[in-house]
Amino acid sequence: MADLKDARILTLAGGLKVLDAAIAEAERIGQPMCIAVVDLGGNLLAFGRMDGSKALSVISSTCKARTAALSGEPTGGAHADVEIQIALASDSQWTNLIGGLPIKVGGLVVGAVAAGSGTGAQDLAVARAGAAAIPGADMFADFTPMGAEDTGIVRGSHPEKVRG
């Protein structure tokens, strides 16, 4: 077994490209956002809080980006029945809110981008626009959200607890 493996890391210049592209998409759809860009270790590279975005989205967008970078998966993919347990097990350092997207190039995670302040679909669209600024980035086209935010599940799989 090898002692080392290849890695690529998103640079500040790359992070700023991602941030600018995400801001442009948020402006295009008319939804002010908080947008966080992190490196592959979840360390903040770039951040923007657009005028009119929600103050608490500063925290959630950063957590979404960190979760996406460290898990290598888009946020919102865990089933609603386990999302609270995973958050508790990670000392609230993990989130299942939609809008965090790893930036994966050539099969390697190089960083992540996340947006917050819109709907889950808006947050994901803005994150995808940001990730697209990096040539060859995976857009996770087959991603299907499964969290309570998206399924309407309050808790559990009981039909009477599903919101319409």
From TrEMBL:
Transmembrane segments: none
InterPro entries, per database record: GlcG_carb_metab_protein, PduO/GlcC-like, PduO/GlcC-like_sf
Pfam families given in the database record: HbpS-like
Gene3D superfamilies, A to Z: Haem-degrading domain
Protein name listed in UniProt: Heme-binding protein
